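Problem 12. The chain below contains 346 residues. Write out its predicted structure in token notation.
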Amino acid sequence: MLDKITPLILCGGSGTRLWPRSRAARPKPFLPLLGDRSLFEEALGRCQGEHFDRPVVVTGAAHVELVELALVRTGRHAEIIVEPRPRGTAAAVALAAVRLPDSAILLVCPSDHHIGRPDVFTKASHEAATLAEQGWLVCLGIDPAAAETRFGYIQRGEALDSAGFRVRQFVEKPDKETAAKYLSSGDFAWNAGIFCFRGGDYLAELEKYRPEMTAAVRAAAELGQTKDSCFHPGEAIYSAIRAESLDYALMENTDRAAMVMADMGWSDIGDWQTLKRMREQDANGNSVRGSGNVIDCRNVFIETDGPRVHAIGLDDVIIVVDGDDVLISSAAGSTRIGELGKEAEK
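Solution.
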């Protein structure tokens, strides 16, 4: 019988592409972008039930209070691990893995994604965990809907069973021409950033390719202390680790990578234009959240936390009001909003 899956929810970041709503003090995971629950609360909600164990949350000190409030609101209990500095997903996952039994099946989940079909997510997680018990390091793949350059791609290899495939290669964020080739080939998937493996297998593989990182994480965990129900690793050792993603550090190198496809209504909600497509729209493609009105507009997105916003005769414009900050952007320029966010958060 398959052991229960331990959700490992990575929670933090600045989410500058959704500035000014998303800020360093309250980044995207803690915002209710679709419905009444925040994206982090959504992640907690879909990682529960008979297949799942108590979650582990890795976050930064600035966001502990937001994590705890969300746990109270959802009635969940979790172990909270606090990074003294963000050192990338490879180290964050290793930090959680060293605190759990080697046999624990970890499901690594970003906290800032939307999944429209949580039942499919549960099924895919179970299939991935079955492969993880066989020693595979598994990622969830998404059928690409367009030649998107913001996502990593995974090439499918031979089938492992009815649900999984060996991974032939990982490719990080290709250019438009290359992405179009991947799309037409039919054997590439988007990388959803969701992974499943046994903790001991992850650490063993990470030690092969990043031995210094693995040793530093182990040492930081040994020096760590529990304060106010949160685990804090040794600050100096952990903060000195070179930041690197799980994808680069491990998944691009290991020969034990596998993939399970998951048609689960996934989106990373990477910018305001993506969110607009997911929101309810009128007959002219306009979306208004908060107090506002549009006249003779097409494809206009408005989000305001207070002041009324009125637009007349605009096409393909994004307007966001958050406190004293007002953002006005063309739809085409929405991919550059992160530049403004980074400047504003300095």
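Discussion. The first helix runs from residue 39 to 46. Students who got a different answer should revisit the alignment rule from Section 12.3.
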